[in-house]
Every structure is written in C-alpha cells, then in structure tokens.
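Internal QA ticket QA-208
Title: Verify multi-chain structure generation after dependency bump
Assignee: T.L.

Test input:
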Amino acid sequence: MSIANTKLGGLVAWIDERTPLTATWKSATRLAGYYAPKNVTFWYLFGTLAIVVLVSQLITGIFLTMHYKPNTSLNESGIPLAFASVEYIMRDVPWGWLIRYLHSTGASVLLILVYLHMFRSILFSVYQKPRELTWLLGMAIFIGLAAQTFVGYLMPWGQLSFWAAQVIINAFSQLPFLGQDFTIWLRGDYVVSDATLNRFFSFHVIAFPAALLWLLIHHVPHTVKDIRYFLAFLIVCVAVIFFRPEAGGYFLEYNNFTQANPLQTPQHIAPLWYFTSYYSILRSITYPLFSIDAKLWGVLGMFASMLIFALLPWLDKSSGKTIRQKGPIFKLALALFVVAFAALSYLGTVPTDPQRLLLAQICTFIYFAFFLLMPIYSRMDKPRSNEGRGAR
Amino acid sequence: MGSDEKFDCGRRRLMAAAAAAGSVAGVAAATATLIPFVASMKPSEQAKAAGAPVEVDISRLKPGQMMTVEWRGKPVWIINRSPEMLETLKKTNAKVSDPNSERSLQPNYCKNETRSIKPGIMVAVGVCTHLGCSPTANFRKGVESGIDAEWAGGFYCPCHGSTYDLAGRVFKDKLAPDNLEIPPYKYFGDAKIIIGEETKGA
Amino acid sequence: MNKLFIRQILIALLVMPFSAMAVGIDIQLDRAPDRSHDQAALQHGARVFTKYCLTCHSASFMRYNRLRDIGFTEQQIKDELMYATEKIGEPMKVVMRRADAQRWFGVVPPDHSVTVRARTSALGPGEDWIYTYLRSFYRDPMRPSGWNNLVFQNVAMHHVLWEFQGEQVLEGDPSGKTHKLKLVTPGKLSPAEYDNLVADLVAYLKYMSEPSAGPRKEVGIYVLIALFVLLAFAIVLKPGFIKLEKRP
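Actual output:
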C-alpha cells in the first residue's frame, strides 16, 4: 500500500461522510443483489471503461456546444451554418479539432465497449435471477445510447447525417398506430429540416444525457479500477484520435464531409458501423408475410433485433454461470451469433446484391434463432458436476 | 370497539373515494400539463406556411432529359420522355406491382397510363416510397445499366434497391410498396409548369 | 479434429462476405504523390489554387492568413495570393454570385475546403481521386463545355488547366474496359511537368481539407510517449486497485 493510496482512501472517506453519493451507489448495488466473480476482471473492465468514455463525451460535449450552431440556413458561401460551424471548430477554435475528434471517436469507442460488455454478459449469464432488473436497466442504457448517437449524428448536417435521419424517421412511419402523424411530430416538419435539427440538438445535449445518467446510477453495481488497464485503453484511443480519426471511414464517414443536400441521396449510404447489423436486417427482409408488406416486416425486424436482448434473462435456461461451465452447444450457438452479427454489420456497410442479400438473410435467421431457440438449446447441455462452484 | 370500527369503515371509504378522485384529478392534471409540451413539437405555423408553388421553365428540357427542382423541401423531377421511353411502359405493365396506380398517390388527372397530364412530360416527387431516399435516374438499357438485362430505363433507389419504371411505378417484390407520388401541378402555357397548384376542371 | 472443423467453418463464414466485395469498380485511381511535408510544393499548389480555381470555387473555411502555416509571409499572401479580398483574416470566397453560377453552369461550383476528405471512397483516398480527375479531361463535342471527364462522367466543369496539359481525346468506350486517353495537342507543359503541377495542387487541397493534420500527428506522438511512460510506472509500482467501496 503506497502513501498516495491511503491518502486517497482518506479523501474518499471524507467525502463519504458528507455526501449521499457512495451511499446511493451502494444501495443500488445491494438492490441488484450483485456479486462480482473473481478472476474475471478483464471481462468486467468494459463496463467501467464505458463509464469513463461517457464522462469524456459529456465534457467534450459541453465544449462543443459552446461553438456549434444548430442552424440549417445557408451562409453567404451557400453552406449550412451547422455544417460550417463544425468546420469552424476544426479550424478556427484553438484545439477545437482535438475536442471534436475526442467526441466523434468517443461515440464509436463507447459503442464498441457496450457491445463487448453485452457479450461478456451473455458469456457469464449475468442477467440470470436475481439480476434481471440490472439487465433491463442496462438494455435501457443501450437503447438510450443508440438514440443519443443517432440524434448526435445529425449535428454535422452532412449528407449522411441528413439521409440517415430521413431513413430512420421514415422507418417509424411504418409502425402500426403511430404512422405518418408521429413522424411529422418527431420532425416538427414534413421533411427533415431546421426544426428537426434543433430538437435533435436539444435531445442530444439535455434530454438524453440526463436520462442516461439517471439510468447509469441505477445500473452500475460494480466498477473495476486498475490504472494499468485504463492506460492501455487510453493508448489505443489516442492512437486512433491522433493518427486515424476517421478510422477508415467507420468513425467519421467521408460522405459526411459533404453538406446535406435534401435533393440528392448519395450513391451509397449506410448508417454508422454500430447500426449496420440492424440495418442489414431491415434490408434482408423482402418477403411479405401474413398479408403484411415486406416494408413493415423489415422495420419490425430492425427494432426487434435491438430490443430482443432484453428478453435474455428469460430465454437463457442454462445452469452454468460462466462460459467455462457452459456446454459445447451454447458455446457454438454464441459463436455462430457473433459471426452472424459481424457478417451483418459488414453487409450493412456495402451495397446489396442478390448474393449478399441471401447471405444477410441467412445471418438474420441465425440472429433471431440464437434468441428464440435459446430456451431449447440452453437446456440441452448437461450440467457439469462442479456446477455452482466459482459462480459467485 | 365495534362502533369505532363502524366509524372507521365509513371514514376509510371516504378516504378511498377521496384518494381515487384525487388520483384521477392528478392524472388528468398531469396529462393536461403534458399537452402543451407534446403539442409544441408539432410543425409550427412557419413550417405549415412553407411550401409555396414553384414555377418551372421546361422549354430547354429536351427529350430524354430530366431536371430536379425543390418543392416543399423535396426533390421534384421533371422528365421529358421520348416516344421510345413511353413505349417501354407497355412492357413494364406486367412487372410493376400497382400498374394502374390504384393505391398510389397522385392527382386524379394523372391517374392514367403515363401518370402525367401530357404523355411526354412526367412530373413526380423524387422520394422513394420505402424510406424516403431520392432514387437515381438510370436511363441506360439492359446490362449496361448495371441493374439487369431486361432493364428498359427507370429509377433505382440506392438505399434499399427498389426500382421504378419510367412512369414512377414500383417493380414487384421490392421493399417500396407504392408508386412515386405525383404532386399536383398545372401548365402555364406550353413551356411552364407550376408545381403545387391544382389543375382545375381536369 | 472436431474443433478444427468448427474453426474452419467459422473462418469461412467470416471471410465469405469480404470475398464478394471486389466487384463493380472499373475506374483505377492513380496514386497522388505524398507532398504533405514539402513546403515548396504546398506553396506552389496554393498559388495554382488561388489563381485558377478560386475564380469559381470558394474555400470558405480557409482563411488567407492561415497560409502562414505553409511558409508564406503575410506580405507575400497580400501581394501574391489575394485576388478577391482586402483583409487577410478573410476566408477564400468567390466574387461570382451563386445565382449567376447556377444560371451559367447549371450547378453552383462546390466549395473546396474539405473536398479531399469528402472525395474519399471505396476507390481510394480523396487526393488520389482529384489527382486522377484533373488529369482525365478529354475533348467531347457532345458536352456544352466541349470537355468531358473519365472519372466524373458529364461533369459541368470545363478543363481549366487545359493550356498546361493540352488536349486529350478518348479512344474506346468509356463504359467498357478498353478506353484510353491520348494526348493529341500538347500543352505548355510536358506530361510529367503537368502531373507535377497537379500533384502540388492536390497536396495543397489535402492540406486545406484539414490544416490541423500536421499538429495533430505531432501532438499525438507526445501524448503516446507520455502514456507509455505512465503505463511503465503503473506496471512497475503496481498501485493496484483504488477501492471506493468494500464488497460484501
């Protein structure tokens, strides 16, 4: 134990006595009835890192908000003010480029961490009784983050910003009972316009961050604090931010360096990489079923593929608590799912053709089969003799 | 004890009724409070007022050419279809999912084989009926078009691959359910079109 | 044996979508030489841009005084590069009105501040696209401008640098694979000299698309070094966990 550590411990104790902060933290933890397994620190790291990145997003966001203008009217050179203000941050604001790259890279890194965090949750079946509520809160955070990145993506008002918003908002018009009126309400206009940009800005900087923080306080049961992991993680992030901020067009898409043009869809559009798997599912459903249009099925499939994770606590009937104890059938299913997810993610970034469509359809089938058949195959693995040991 | 109980019972009922009424009032008040906030997100008067008719000069549009103008924030295409292009509509008749535009959006005066007032000049909202992308015109034929060998010219949506013929009719088994929307428009002389104004008595 | 088989299937499944990728591209981009550290080339490019491009294309995010980054003095910028404006803090705007441009060309010439970044695609980096584009103009009597371009078919722009390159014609079908450009009338520059001029211009456009790219990489190296030093300390000293809470 170093001296610095004891001092820090003293400081924490001092704060503890005077604020309800850690008490809230602890009570939330106890509520979840959560025990951290030993020797799995590595897999438990992602959640903690995600919190670190989220805080970084909040801080960089505060500073970007000082310079960004959610305004679609054109300046004298014919460029929308929103688009121009992002380039203003990149050029005229001292160190603005760094803050912007931190924010744009942070969004992608956050989603990478969330996906890894979800993967380890399935690996260790952490959502099983009595932790269903923690899992559901986590799922709410996942959906909240998806919404947050989606509205945030409109901010630069580039071609992809505009058309991604156009396509996704129109997807809502397919949902039963909501229909056209809902999308007009959501846009505040009959087309994606200045009104849409302004309300998305409001969601992005006030409504969603507040909701996410509230959810997070009630979700997080346990954090890992090992500075070595943090530093290693930072090194990877810094390498991306300073040397490949576009990450080959995955973190910052090249088409988005062209200002939004409501009259022309780019030849090739794709959502940001973390949505491409769901987008592939939307594209792959081309059969009308039960006299309902393929269009509606595609949209339902897309939303279902994101929401179905929430059902995991009730689908997973396996008795093993960690992947080592799980039988080969569950492992194979999970591996197939990961491959299908990766393949769908890739297919969503490229234009479709009949061959790729078929592949996407097969992967969509695997995707849903992983969840819907789980109550069957997760029971098929024989429980091991050492069941229950080390699960806590 | 007994009389006390009776008294309590009545009081409890009164309390329960009051609580129920209170909750109803509370919920009503909360809903009433929500209304202005939810309603504030509807299109403003400014947004509703936008969308004046657009006047377009088509005198320079040669057969086989197409131009795009903005109307209510959406792209509107004007295509001068050559007789040869119009001929292709007979062939695509069997391949499109709504050949007579029964369930598609168009003014009544455009609900015909060519989906236009004058057979040659096509006016359509260039927005895919699937998820709202703007399709790309592809007037090349056959394999050269890069779509398929039987392609006779039409529109291809880059987002999800829906295809339309030269009258904006969607082909079968595509994600888009309906034909391209035809906006209300009228002629002003031979060389001018006003988009957004109805043709009267047509 | 069984495990190996499963692994092979998994790898095959992962690779499958990627193998379907190499279709549908028939333009080959030439590599633009990397001159991002060559100040003379950047300055030459800036001169070409302000003289030949800036008449129609703005660079409204680029301020003239920023050209000091690539070695110009303030006096040089004022005397040799500023044609359209008086104030050195102004961005590079065009004099032409947008409505006029729309009428004359049918399209407003795009702003070129971030063109290099926007032009990056599956074909290759944006600088390669522009490098190839500016060298692929050919005579086409069917076009209103008299010019066409292999990389950007039916582009509205005419060949502004034609005096330097000369006139090329297209042999073969542009949509087929056999097409080739042939120089029929030589220009003021030899083909090698013209390529050099375009390379300098492209280097400048690339600089302009992200002026912070230079400092970004420089700062990045220092930050990485600092983090590695901290990591070394962390590994040697093993500060371990800072516990905020005791687990039950």
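Spot checks passed. Residues 8-25, 240-248 of chain C have pLDDT under 50 and may be disordered.
Status: verified.
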